[in-house]
Each structure stands twice: as C-alpha cells, then as structure tokens.
Design goal:
single chain; alpha+beta; Jelly Rolls; 4 domains; five-stranded antiparallel beta sheet
Length: about 575
C-alpha cells in the first residue's frame, strides 16, 4: 500500500554561505571572499530525501526503485529532479490554492533549490563523519483491536478482466460498536484495483449471507456495493445505503479518526469487503486481503459517515481530448452539513476533478481541486478541525470531472494500445467514474428502539401525508429523504400506483432529474420532492397529482401496513 506520511518540514540549510568582508577593517586588502559552501549528500540532501522519499523508495517498498543510499540517489539524481520540478514527487495531487489539508506533502521551494544546486554540482557526497541528523516521520499508524479476514484466500477468475468479489469477514458485532481506525492490507497487490468495506446491518444481512453460501468458492460476485445482483437490499425491505467503514485505493493511508469521532456499526452487523481485481496486466494468484480495525463500545461525541456525490450519466466520447462532465447537488435538508475530509475518484482517463460549494450569497468556495489526476496516488484529504466546511441548507455542492479520451491517452491491453471508444460510467478499469467522497460529521444521539420497518418519528411523517393541504405523493416523497420508513412508503406508492400513472411516471423517469434527485437525497438527505420541484417541475407535478389520487382512494393502505408497518391518517 502506498504510504502517505504527514511529513514534517525540515528547516533548509543555506544554499551558500558567501560572506563578504564589508567593514573597514575586515580582511586583507584584495583578499578573495570565502568560497561558497557546497551542497553535499551527507550534510544537506540525505535528510531531505529521507523525509520526502523514505517511506516509499525503500527495498520492498511501493516505489519502483529504492532511494536509500548516496549511490542510489546519485544515479537517479537527474530523474528525481525532473519529477520534483514537474510536481510529480513528492506525490500530492490537491492544488494548495484551493484549501489547506492536513499532512500535505508539499516540498518547500528552499529544498527544491538545494536539490537543484546539488545536481548542478554533480552530486557531491560530502563527509559522512559530519552527516546531518535524519528524522523521518513513519506516518499514521494505530494498534488494531481486530484483524478481520475472509474464511479462505480467493483466486480471481481469469475469465474476466475485472473480477468483483465480496467477502463476509469473520468479525461479528453482538452489540453496537464504534470504529475509530481502519486499514485495508492488500495481499496480491498486483491484482487488487480497489477495496470498499461496508458494515451490513441485520435488516439486509440475509441477502449477503445467502449469496455467500450459494456462490461457489470464497465470497460471491457483487457490483457497485456489498449486495449481490439479486438486489438483496430491496428484497429485504430496506433499500438504504450500507455503512461504509473503510476503503483502499492506490495511495491510501490508514484511516485514523480524531478523538471524539467514530463510525457506528450497529449490533448484529457483519463486515463485507468488496475487492475489485484487475487482471489486464497480471496473472491470477491467490489473494488474502485483510482488514485491520480499532473498535470500542464507548459512544463518541460525533459520528462519522462517508457519502459521495457522483455523476453516473457520464459522457466521454471516443477521441475527445477534453470531455467535461458537471453536476450540482443541493442541501435540501434543514440542517448544515459538516465536511471533515474529501477524496476524488476517477479511473485512468481522468485528468482533473474539482468540487466547489455554491454559497447562499452567490459566491463559490473551492472544496477540492485536483488539476492533474493520477490514478496511482489516490487518497483522502483531511481538513483541519478548525476549518471543517459547513454547507448550509439550500447551498449546493458541485462536481466537475474532465477526461482525455484521445488516441494517445488510451491504456495498453496485452501489450497493445487500444482504440478510443465511447466511455460511460462503469465498475471496470476501462470504464470511468466521477466521484467526490465526503466525510460528514454529525453529533451522536442514542438510537431509538425500532419495532417495525418505521421508527415512531418517521412513521409520523408519512402518516400525516393523507391529511390534506399538500399532495399525498409529494408529502411521502419528502419523507423519503429522511429515513428508511419514508423510502419504504415511496416504494409501496410506486408499486400500487405505477400502473395507473404509467405515462407521467415514464415522463419523469426519462428526465435527467430523476437520477440526479435520487442521488441527491441518497447521499445528502433531505426533501426529494424539493429537488424534483426545482429541476423538473412540470413532470413532477403531473406524477404527484396522479399518485395522490391513488393514495387518497385507499389503494395503497394495505401495502403500507403490511410491508412498512404504516397507517395513513384520514
């Protein structure tokens, strides 16, 4: 795994110590000024290389060659300088002009200048007996309380270029638990493309365990999340998102939360690890990727959740060198969203990703800007606690992804560069994605007991939707953005009224707002009906009127009661 240590900046030694005799009695007349002190390996460069390069460029490290001695650095000095000048090394993708992030790997200009001078002087070694002390931060680490793993190693199927496999790990949670640190440890790292880790709650666990039992071999096939293609979440009556508790992509570091923060794992949950294996360039071999966790039963001050904003309807035409995709997602809730960290994700055609906040006063604030995307150096970027970002109600988040689909930027498969083709959203390495993950923070409140699909507060929201004053369907849709109960009611509404309202439902379904608004609600919460009313008001009004007539007739009462445990007040 790519280490990404929070390097401490060393005070750079002076490049030259050229002191001129400038007072009246200073030095012999006509004397030569002292010669500049040369920049040398032991005195100046070794501490910089150790600090900036020493966690990756070591024997057995993730970098392709070591930089752990005078000889190895001397031989690569010109190449290293080119990478430093181009900004490729040390690897740090966010533009510092956007905002400050913790642990930024940004090489000070004084250190760059010193390295330039050393290379220009043909890399002198200096005196090892007077070498400068070297201090290297080992990077973020934690002591795991649990190491979770699949029951047995899995050998990816060579029949597929991309093999997506989910594994139910051996960790169990009889009580509510809180995660304070996690780290995915890839085993067959030549094959592991990325890893997503979820806590699947007891209400959706049956679909997962059934798939694990019936699919041949370790784990089961899955796409886009922990559930099998049988749509386990929907079958169980809860189509909500599982809790994402960890991830790994090239460049990842251990996820360690500050004191007082934790990710909740509900009692009865199991951990499902989705591993994407890419076999385009490597032969298959057994993989035993594991997950390290630090857990506690002490409730935190604040809960952490991870949600992405995404563009699923990507349009990346064949041959286009600058294909731009853009979307906006609004905070339709009545509370501010607090963002403590961000991360971008694209595949290999991506060239830049940017996200901004559209403020209520019309101004725009940069959230994340990666102007030169590199798939090999993805990671999350933590915002200093005193600078956590608040997105107030009715303010919006934007996401903009740019792709180079020109012939020169195509990947190589089996040693041959492929021809450009139209590329859209997909899980495969040769597909693309556009995502900005956000780590959201909210105060911890003890969960209320739930006897049915719907908690009491959520049931009240839906129950009053038939009382008048607002279209019943629009009311139910507004409840759907609040909790599982509202989502269940929405599904039953569509199920019982879909046939009678097929025409307006089809018109809304074919509108781009349908997917955008459901993604908006799923990721950020809030009132889905407000999103529809803003983005496709005509189509939404026609469907809402039709479905409300069905609801008010009592046709949906039975499915509401039987499936969701709801009773509409009339």
């Amino acid at each position: 795994m790519h280490p990404s240590a929070p390097y401490r900046l060393l005070a750079a030694a002076p490049l030259v110590l050229a002191l001129a005799a400038c007072d009246e009695g200073g030095g012999e007349p006509g004397a030569e000024p002292p010669a500049p002190q040369a920049v040398t390996w032991h005195q100046d460069i070794a501490p910089i290389v150790a600090q900036r390069c020493g966690t990756c460029h070591v024997p057995g490290g993730v970098a392709p060659f070591p930089l752990d001695s005078y000889e190895t650095v001397r031989d690569m000095a010109s190449v290293a300088l080119s990478s430093i000048e181009a900004g490729r090394m040390p690897p740090w993708m966010p533009d510092p002009d956007c905002r400050d992030f913790l642990d930024a790997r940004i090489m000070p200009e004084a250190e760059k200048e010193m390295f330039r001078a050393w290379v220009a002087a043909e890399a002198p070694e200096g005196d090892p007996t007077t070498a400068s002390p070297i201090e290297v931060d080992p990077g973020p680490t934690f002591e795991p309380t649990v190491i979770a793993a699949p029951v047995e190693a899995y050998t990816p199927d060579e029949a597929y270029d991309d093999d997506y496999r989910c594994f139910v790990l051996d960790a169990e949670f009889p009580e509510d638990t809180f995660l304070t640190a996690s780290q995915v440890v890839p085993d067959a790292d030549a094959l592991v493309h990325h890893v997503l880790v979820y806590a699947v709650g007891p209400d959706t666990l049956d679909a997962v365990t059934e798939a694990d039992a019936t699919d041949e071999g370790p784990g089961y096939t899955c796409f886009g999340g922990p559930f099998p293609r049988t749509e386990g979440a929907a079958a169980s009556g809860n189509p909500g998102l599982p809790t994402q508790i960890g991830a790994w992509v090239p460049g990842s570091v251990p996820q360690i939360y500050e004191d007082g923060l934790a990710v909740p794992i509900a009692a009865g949950s199991r951990i499902v690890m989705q591993v994407h294996y890419n076999l385009l360039g490597s032969a298959s071999e057994p993989d035993a990727t594991t997950l390290e966790l630090r857990l506690t039963d002490e409730p935190p001050e604040m809960l952490v959740s991870t949600r992405p904003i995404i563009i699923r309807n990507l349009d990346i035409p064949a041959g286009e060198a600058e294909a731009v995709n853009f979307a906006t997602y609004r905070n339709y809730t009545d509370e501010a969203l607090t963002i403590a960290a961000v991360a971008g994700h694209m595949h290999t055609l991506g060239t830049s990703v940017r996200s901004t906040i559209q403020r209520a006063d019309g101004s725009e604030e940069c959230l994340l800007d990666i102007p030169d995307w590199d798939f090999s150096w993805q990671q999350g970027y933590r915002i200093p606690r005193d600078a956590w970002v608040r997105v107030e109600p009715d303010e919006a988040l934007t996401i903009r992804c740019t792709y180079d689909n020109s012939p020169a930027n195509q990947p190589f498969v089996d040693g041959q560069q492929i021809e450009p083709r139209d590329v859209t959203w997909g899980e495969g390495t040769l597909d693309e994605m556009c995502m900005v993950y956000m780590t959201l923070i909210r105060p911890y409140t003890p969960p209320a007991p739930v006897d049915t699909v719907c908690s009491a507060a959520d049931a009240d929201c839906v129950a009053t939707c038939a009382e008048g004053g607002r279209d019943s369907a629009e009311c139910i849709l507004s409840c759907a953005g609040q909790a599982t109960c509202g989502i269940c009611a929405l599904r039953q509404t569509i199920g019982c009224g879909g046939a009678r309202c097929a025409a307006p439902f089809s018109a809304l379904q074919n509108h781009a707002c349908m997917e955008n608004c459901f993604i908006n609600t799923l990721m950020l919460g809030g009132d889905t009906s407000a999103c529809f009313a803003e983005k496709c008001p005509v189509e939404f009004a026609e469907l809402s009127t039709c479905l409300s007539e069905v609801i008010d007739s009592g046709s949906c009462d039975a499915p509401f009661a039987d499936t969701c445990g709801l009773e509409l007040l009339r």
